[in-house]
Write a structure and sequence with these properties.
503 residues; FAD/NAD(P)-binding domain; D-Amino Acid Oxidase, Chain A, domain 2; ten-stranded mixed β-sheet; eight-stranded mixed β-sheet; 25% strand; globular; binds flavin-adenine dinucleotide
Length: 503
């Protein structure tokens, strides 16, 4: 293969790498991205899945971060109204925790710092009368209810990569950057692309390797640097649905931490998160202690205590925070830091950041690199919907009704899920189908062969895991027998399932 010369080459297909690649491609730059596993396979599929300002960061005086994130919530909601939606959070007042006046003050700032237009403001709830009080212990009498947004984190990453590719970027999954060296005015980058060796050149290199950012700097790029990353593990537990309404809870703990209990995938409640320093780069796992901590924390509030047997799934992610020397993992800054090394062809390394600020981080990254690139345009992503998101944020019910009118055989639950996954592209995925059998094999949990094929052909899905845990969250609903059939089907297609993570 002839050697390609890129303007920007990005290491890492998490939210930050995919966001930077999309933004750069839209500016007319020649962009490449390598992800050693699947898109969003690391931290960006293991978050709490909130577009939020981060109410608790106000206690650490992180006003810039909170303001930027609050403003960003509605920008993102408008650009991806299929995969994100407003969510109300119920924060019960507890006499042993922060005083009511302090919480009210925090929420007043939260309501007014972020130029809210779509999201409703804070209100007071009487828990003895409101439905939100029903699953809680009777001593909890009053709560505040405020707004943030929910987002399907891994789909956000995938759709950024899909859009980057549509704008000309080369997105390489299962491709590891094994070495990169400065040679004259370029970086010479070596890849293991699904087992094959490949070399390319790029003017600018972006290190968006998340938890691996320091390892890439030291081992892959062989750069002597003092900059460090603080790896902080966060775990979640998923339990059977604990309440019927669609609001989430924000609980305060006696250790000064907070956790959320959020309605999840129709039938479940998601509870998290923890903050544990993590030393190794091994795949993170929710420890039994973390699961117990989350159960007991939530059981301080829910009338029915949560038993270990109620846990149906757990997941963990590692926050790649900038090492600011904070004493505790909870206090370490969640803000992002972009470090530019111009000792030869430029290298930009990304530390920290939130899902919520990925678009602003991408703009900031392109601004830092501007003098090294010949971009054909400036900032553009604030007004540009992600694939399938080109409709008003409040039009989801209309889209569902339209889809059902066009495909009357779709059960309401399936029609809703398809709009919430593919937005205006749902019809394209269903094509000419006239009944369910036209969608091919039914793998269970609502996954059809037509949908699996769409994900392989349009969204870089390769394995069953990619499909059931990152392109969708159907893994929670699918029978093991269905997963087995999906794997067999993938092997039949192109031997996809045989492609494993490169070492
Ligand atoms: P990652 O998603 O980890 O991506 C880095 C990628 O680089 C990986 O996929 C990896 O495989 C790849 N890579 C590494 N080395 C190489 C190499 N040599 N070659 C090729 N590829 C390589 N933020 C919010 O806004 N809202 C939330 O609710 C929220 N909740 C969170 C809860 C938890 C428990 C955690 C851990 C984080 C949460 N965050 C939240 C923060 C957010 O998830 C992260 O900041 C963000 O996902 C980091 O994205 P990233 O792209 O930097 O890293």
């Amino acid at each position: 293969m002839p050697e390609t010369i890129f303007d920007i080459f990005v290491i890492g297909g998490g939210v930050n790498g995919a966001g930077i690649a999309r933004d750069a491609a839209g500016r007319g730059l020649r962009v490449g991205l390598a992800e050693m596993d699947d898109l969003a396979s690391a931290t960006s599929s293991a978050s709490t899945k909130l577009f939020h300002g981060g109410l608790r960061y106000l206690e650490y005086y992180k006003f810039r971060l909170v303001r930027e994130a609050l403003i960003e919530r509605e920008v993102l909601l408008r650009n991806m109204p299929h995969i994100s939606w407003p969510m109300r959070f119920v924060l019960p007042l507890h006499k042993d925790m922060r005083p009511a006046w302090l919480i009210r003050l925090g929420l007043f700032m939260y309501d007014h710092m972020g130029g809210r237009k779509i999201l409703p403001g804070t209100k007071v709830l009487d828990l003895t009368k409101d439905e939100a009080g029903k699953p809680l212990k009777p001593f909890l009498k009053k709560a505040y209810e405020y707004s943030d947004c929910w987002v399907q984190d891994s789909r956000l990453v995938v759709l950024n990569a899909v859009d980057a590719a549509a704008r000309g970027a080369e997105i390489l999954t299962r491709t590891k950057v094994i070495s990169a060296k400065r040679r004259g005015q370029y970086w010479e980058v070596e890849l293991n692309e699904r087992g094959a060796y490949r070399k390319l050149r790029t003017k600018v290199l972006v290190n968006a390797a998340g938890p691996w950012v320091a390892k890439v700097l030291r081992d892959t790029l062989e750069i002597d640097t003092r900059e460090g990353v603080r790896l902080v593990r966060g775990s979640h537990i998923v339990v059977k649905k604990l309440f019927e309404h669609d609001r989430a809870y924000f609980f305060q703990g006696s250790d000064n931490r907070i956790i959320f209990a959020i309605p999840y995938e129709q039938d479940f409640t998601l509870i998290g998160t923890t903050d544990q320093d993590q030393t190794a780069l091994d795949p993170p796992e929710c420890s039994p202690e973390e699961a117990d901590y989350l159960r007991h924390f939530a059981s301080e509030y829910f009338a029915e205590p949560i038993a270990a047997e109620d846990i149906v799934w757990t997941y963990s992610g590692v926050r790649p925070l900038y090492d600011d020397g904070a004493s505790s993992a909870t206090e370490a800054t969640r803000d992002y830091v972009l470090s530019l090394d111009e000792d030869g062809p430029p290298l930009l390394s990304v530390f920290g950041g939130k899902i919520t600020t990925y678009r602003k981080l991408s703009e900031a990254a392109l601004a830092r690199l501007d003098s090294h690139l010949e971009a054909k345009s400036g900032n553009w992503t604030a007004e540009a919907p992600l694939p399938g998101g080109d409709f008003p944020h409040d039009a989801v019910p209309r889209l569902i009704a339209d889809l059902q009118a066009q495909y009357p055989f779709l059960a309401p639950k399936l029609a809703k899920r398809l709009i919430r996954t593919y937005g205006t592209l749902a019809g394209k995925m269903l094509g000419e189908a006239r009944d369910m059998s036209d969608l091919g094999q039914d793998f269970g949990g609502g996954l059809s062969e037509a949908e699996a094929r769409w994900l392989v052909e349009n969204e870089f899905a390769v394995s069953a895991e990619d499909i059931i845990w990152r392109r969708t969250r159907l893994g929670l609903h699918m029978p093991p027998e269905g997963v087995k059939r999906l794997k067999a089907w993938l092997i039949e297609q192109k031997g996809h399932e045989s492609i494993k993570k490169v070492s």
